[in-house]
Amino acid sequence: MHSVPDLSVLDGASVVVVGGGFGGLSTACYLADAGAEVTLLEKNEQLGGRASRLERDGFRFDMGPSWYLMPDVFERFFSHFDRTPSDYYGLTRLDPHYRIFFKDGDRVDMVPDIEENKETFEAYEPGAGEKFDEYLRKSERNYEIGMEHFVYEDRSRVRDFLDLDVAKNAWGLSLIGSMQDHVERYFSHPKLQQIMQYTLVFLGGSPKNTPALYNLMSHVDFNLGVYYPDGGLGGVVDGIVAMAEELGVDFHTGTPVEEIRGRTGAFVVRTPDEEFLADYVVSDADYAHTEQELLPSEKRQYSERYWESRTYAPSAFLLYLGVEGDVDPLAHHTLVLPTDWDRHFEQIFDDPAWPDDPAYYLCVPSETDDAVAPEGHSNLFVLVPVAAGLEDTPSLRRAYRDLVLDDIASHTGVDLRDRIVVEESFCVSDFAARYNATKGTALGLAHTLRQTAIFRPPNASQAMDGLFFTGSFTQPGIGVPMCLISGQLTAERMANTVGE
């Protein structure tokens, strides 16, 4: 197992971390544990980045991530600090993991019982049950090798891939081709293909532009399980913040950073009210925003044209709804999928438009947690992936809200329209304003083949010594577990750089 190298060279160093998302929180924990003096500056009033919360009239919504996946990553993270997740929050395994409504009237549950899932697959396509087993074996191998030798290892330079150990472990991994090609080799039925590919939405890609390596997500989904942490993902943020404070991290919320500049032997990080001095700076803010808006032009690694040319993960149209009564038969995690979802992905990546036949996700935490809604009410949010940079106006939102609520009623049988007592929306312009997100992306850089591993921006600036980056733009990429790991990789890179 990969272990975190000695970070003690950072003992006594002063570090300012810009941004309190999972990447920033994780980096801050590793640095503080190593003895660094860590100050974290967060633009918004809440910590957690996109994993913030909305509380209104007795309803509490996770505004961002809502799936607790890869529990092994959280266990490994806390164990570095001689703690466990259970020191800070409890977990409930969901059953079903999620429910899918296909828009042709079909409905299916994916559950913790693998044999039951095999029977479901077999019912759609003769032989698919055995193929499901075979697919999961491949997925598990990719996960174990991929995590140990690629995700937990900082391989951000070409030379990091040019050794025998990498070649040996890469042998047999699904490194070439798309997820669409890979899944088609196992399953012919389009619904089975969709079930194996829906997790790509969490990676910000489509079946045609995401590398086949990410079939490892099926091991995450089916073998490792889907959980709900006490208090939702906000409860996980609270736990990590509590641990960070125990480790000595100094937090400043409501403190937007306006400029990062170097001076002899140190940095000056300017906010509206004061300047913070530090030996090193780590940015967990949007990478493009950091470079284009916070740094002097001569200290930027990339041009504006570079950032314009990137493929961004989708943004999202979100409705946070407090509803009278129950919302059966919706499950805690519910997916509503068109029988042909190619058009939705085309309207995200190829020809940006508001999806006219959307695939979307419904999260109903009140199915599991009574504390997120008043008695007799349900808490849910609707998430429709939409193109980053899409035009987002109040009138467009109103029209799309009506389309989505009509679609939910038509395809799940749950009519929310006359029962809504609390309603908020969040979309492209909100992601841009609240999180300084480039083009209003909800996630960061998509995991296309040209934006995976060494092709993602580095976690150590090549233009400004002592400036580092963490979070979803860097390695290993998008998602809460990946951002936790990015904090470890950034701390390691800092230690290696300081120790050179």
UniProtKB/TrEMBL annotation:
One of its GO terms (molecular function) is oxidoreductase activity. NCBIfam families: crtI_fam. The keyword Oxidoreductase applies. Pfam families: Amino_oxidase. Keywords: Carotenoid biosynthesis, Oxidoreductase. Residues 23-494 form the Amine oxidase domain. This is Phytoene desaturase.
